[in-house]
Design goal:
By secondary structure, the chain is an alpha/beta fold. Helix content is about 30%, strand content about 25%. The strands form three sheets. Strands 4, 14, 15, 16, 17, 18, 19, 20 and 21 form a nine-stranded mixed β-sheet that branches. Strands 5, 6, 7, 8, 9, 10, 11, 12 and 13 form a nine-stranded parallel β-sheet that branches. Strands 1-2-3 form a three-stranded antiparallel β-sheet. A hairpin with a 3-residue loop joins strand 14 and strand 15. Helix 8 runs parallel beside helix 9. The chain is globular and about 70 Å long. Bound molecules: ligand LLP. The site of ligand LLP has 21 residues, from helix 10 and helix 11.
Length: about 450
Amino acid sequence: MENKNELKQLDFPATMKVNEQDHLEIAGVDTIDLANKYGTPLLIYDVATIRKNIQTYKEALKTYRQNAEISYASKAFASVAMYQVIKQENISIDVVSGGELYLAKQADFPAEKINFHGNNKSKAELEEALDYGIDHFIVDNFHELNMLRDLTDARQQPAKVVIRVTPGVDADTHKYIMTGQRDSKFGFDIQSGQAEEGVKIALETDYLQVEGIHMHIGSQIFDTETYLLAMKQVLKHVKYWEEAFAFQLKVFNIGGGFGIQHTPDEKETVFKQQLETISEGLMSLLDQYDLPYPELWIEPGRSIVGEAGTTIYEIGSYKELSGIRRYVSVDGGMSDNIRPAFYGAEYFGLLANRMTEQTKSEFSIAGKACESGDMLIWDLPLPEVNPGDKLAVFNTGDYTFVMASNYNRIPRPAVVFVEDGKDFLAIRRETPEDFMRFENHLPEDF
Ligand code: LLP
C-alpha cells in the first residue's frame, strides 16, 4: 500500500478529485463544505457513478442476443430520490416489502417496472401490489402462491409471476449472504420437486400468468462459475418441464450478487466481464438444451450504488496503547454502517481535509456505539489525526443507510446526492425530536 494519504489506492470514480484546499471533492463539490453544511456522519452519493454503473450493465447485456432487463435491487439503497434517479435511467426495480413499495410509489415509480420479492409477503402487501398493478411477483413459496391465487381469483385480476427456485449451489461468499444452497429460507427447492410442484400449481390457476423462473445465489460474488452451475441446474429442469407439461420459460431472472471492491486488498469490481461471461454461458446452455432464448433479467443492487457512496465522519477522541494500537473514534459507526460488525466487512478511508499528506502510522477507527465490535476499520494508515479532522470512508453506498439503526439512540445520518457541481439533500439527518414521534409518556394511572 502507498504511504501517502491520496486517491490512488482504489479504483476511484473519475468524479473524485483532490482540490486546491487539499480536500476530497466529489462531482465538483468539496466534501468538507458538505460536512460543514449538513453535518456528519454524512453519506454522499455520486449520482454520475450510479448512472454510469447502470449504463455499464446495459452495455454488458448487449452480449445476450435476446431482450434483457435490469431490475435494480432497491434493498441496497432505497429512497424517494434514488427511485427517481432509477426512473430517469429507465430500468426496473425490485422491492421486498410494503415499505419499499410505498417509497417507490411516493417517487411515482411506474408500476409496470416494479417486481415484488420476499420470502414472507403478507396478504396486505400482496393486495397493495395488486392494487398498484406491479409487473412481476417473484413467488417464493407455497403459502404465497396459494394466497396470490386466492386473491387474484377473488379480484378476477391477472398477475404475472416468476417462480423463485433454489438451484442448490454454494456461492463463494459470507454465509449470511449465500442464498442458492438447498438449505436456504428462500425459494422452492428444485432438487426435491418442490419447484416443479409450484410451477404446476401456478399453471393451473385462472389468473396467474407464469412468466418464468428466478434464482439468486447470493451477494458479493466475483466468480462466474457458480452462476453457470446454477443456471445449468435450472435449465436442466426447465427442459424436463417443457417436455413433460409444455412449460415455457419466457423470463429467466438470474438475480443479482455481483461483487464490488471495498478496500485495496479486495478483489476488483468486474461485473461487466462477469455478466458478459454469464450471458455467453447462458446462450450456450440454452443451445445445448435446445431451448428458445428467454428474456434475461438481472437484479443488481450493491454494484449499482456501492462505489457511488462515500461516508464523511468527524474524528473525535483518541486513545493510544503504546506498542499495541492507536484508536481514534468517529461520530458514527455501526449505527450508520453495520457491515463491519455484522459481516466482518472491510473498508478503506483517507483524511478528507488533508488528502495528500504523508501517512504517519496506523489508526484503528472506532465507532461511537457502546459495543466493542463497533470498529469501522482496523489499522488504517493515516497522517497525524486531530479532533475535528474529517475521515472519508469509501464505497459505502451498498447496504449501509438502509441497515442503519438507532442503537444508543444515535440519529441516522443525512444522505446527500452530488452531480455536476450541485448537491441535494436526499434524506435529512434524523434528530432526537424525531424519536418523539413514536414515544408516549407513561399515563398517570399506569
Ligand atoms: N436479488 C435478490 C433476490 C436478493 O436477495 C438480493 C440481495 C439481490 C438481488 C441484490 O444482490 P446484490 O446485487 O446487491 O448483491 N446486507 C448484505 C447483502 C444482502 C443481500 C440481500 N439480497 C450486505 O451488506 O452485504
